[in-house]
Write a structure and sequence with these properties.
140 residues; mainly alpha; 76% helix
Length: 140
């Protein structure tokens, strides 16, 4: 396993952990998503990144492309909802109580982890396409 694979795996697990804590803050603040949002959150934000892990073992180009797609979709969904669009999920208008700081911190953390995952996914995909055998490239 190379360093990028380790970053890939670490980012997926860190993202999963922060998303689970963020979900708890949603429940505590009684900010419940609509059914279509729940389906997207479960399929793309929770399951999607984790589903890339077994694929990474056998095909890093497919895994990195899939990670890049799901994390881009997750960021495109979460960033506007948390920071740009007025609504119950927007960090600036969440009611102030004991859960608010954790809600805001995990929303920021999720965004940072998604951007980092996109960067690792794009980099790993580029390397796997340039070197499909998976062996280190020979210096020329």
């Amino acid at each position: 396993m190379n360093r990028l694979d380790a970053y890939f795996i670490g980012l997926v697990f860190a993202h999963l952990g922060v998303v689970l804590v963020h979900t708890i803050t949603h429940l505590a603040l009684q900010i419940l998503p609509a059914p279509p949002d729940t389906a997207f959150i479960l399929g793309v934000i929770l399951i999607g990144p984790v589903a890339t892990l077994p694929i990474l073992r056998f095909n890093s180009s497919v895994a990195s492309a899939l990670l890049t797609v799901v994390m881009s979709a997750a960021f495109a969904y979460g960033f506007p909802g948390h920071f740009l669009i007025a609504g119950p999920d927007q960090v600036a208008i969440v009611g102030s109580n004991g859960w608010t700081l954790l809600f805001v911190a995990t929303a920021v953390g999720i965004g940072i982890l998604e951007i980092a995952s996109i960067a690792v996914g794009v980099t790993l995909f580029g390397r796997s396409v340039r070197n499909p055998s998976g062996h280190p490239a020979r210096p020329r």
